[in-house]
């Protein structure tokens, strides 16, 4: 079952963010606190949204955290999927597909024309999963990022 996250889900979302970061060999990079996630997801002006996948017994199986982007070429919003995570013990149970299906449904319902995300190039199980759903890599694009000192230097 897929449902929209509530503020009560923030502790488990925070826990799964850390699990995902550990899987991606980047746990040391996680700085987000539960308070920050609460504000981002449920504050006065939410900047992100989350959906929860549950097992038949009601246990949290995974989550999708996303936000709106905008295509100047298409002239409409899309969804950027920041994180998709399904706990290892329940992988293969359809939870990841159900989460992506819900985001695709939201796109279609609202007239959004893109559902996009990034995947680490070494994460072959996820790449295979996404390709099986019909997703296509955008190999001609390279992601750039400013953080920490470089961001402070440019913006300071």
Describe this protein with a few key phrases.
alpha+beta; five-stranded mixed beta sheet
Could you describe the 3D structure shown?
With 156 residues, this protein is α+β, with helices and mostly antiparallel strands. Helix content is 36%, strand content 22%. The protein contains five helices and five strands, in the order βααβββαβαα. It has helices at residues 10-23, 34-42, 95-110, 124-132, 148-155, and strands at 2-4, 49-54, 60-71, 76-86, 115-117. A five-stranded mixed β-sheet has the order 1-2-3-4-5, sandwiched between helices. Strand 2 (49-54) and strand 3 form a beta hairpin. The longest helix is centred in the middle third of the chain and has 16 residues, at 95-110. The chain is globular, with a radius of gyration of 16 Å. The mean pLDDT is 96.
Number of strands: 5
What is the quaternary state of this protein? single chain
CA-CA gap between termini: 46 Å
Task: Please give the order of strands in the largest beta sheet.
Answer: 1-2-3-4-5
Please summarize the sheet with the most strands: 5 strands, mixed
Label the structural class: alpha+beta
> Strand portion, in percent?
15-25%
Rounded mean pLDDT is 96
Order of helices and strands: EHHEEEHEHH
Number of helices: 5
Per the principal axes of the C-alpha atoms, what is the gross shape? globular
- Uncertain residue segments: none
Radius of gyration: 16 Å
Q: Please give the share of residues in helix.
A: 25-40%
Give the helix/strand layout.
Elements: E1 2-4, H1 10-23, H2 34-42, E2 49-54, E3 60-71, E4 76-86, H3 95-110, E5 115-117, H4 124-132, H5 148-155
Parallel strand pairs: 4-5
Antiparallel strand pairs: 1-2, 2-3, 3-4
């Amino acid at each position: 079952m897929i449902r929209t996250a509530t503020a009560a889900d923030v502790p488990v979302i925070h826990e799964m963010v850390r699990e995902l970061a550990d899987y991606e060999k980047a746990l040391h990079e996680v700085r987000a606190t539960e308070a920050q996630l609460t504000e981002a997801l449920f504050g006065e002006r939410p900047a992100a949204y989350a959906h929860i996948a549950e097992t038949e017994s009601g246990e949290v199986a995974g989550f999708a955290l996303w936000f709106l982007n905008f295509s100047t070429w298409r002239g409409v919003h899309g969804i950027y999927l920041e994180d998709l995570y399904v706990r290892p013990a329940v992988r293969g149970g359809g939870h990841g597909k159900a989460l992506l299906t819900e985001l695709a449904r939201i796109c279609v319902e609202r007239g959004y024309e893109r559902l996009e995300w990034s995947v680490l190039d070494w994460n072959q199980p996820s790449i295979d999963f996404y390709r099986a759903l019909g997703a296509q890599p955008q190999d001609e694009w390279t992601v750039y990022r400013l953080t920490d000192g470089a961001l402070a230097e440019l913006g300071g």
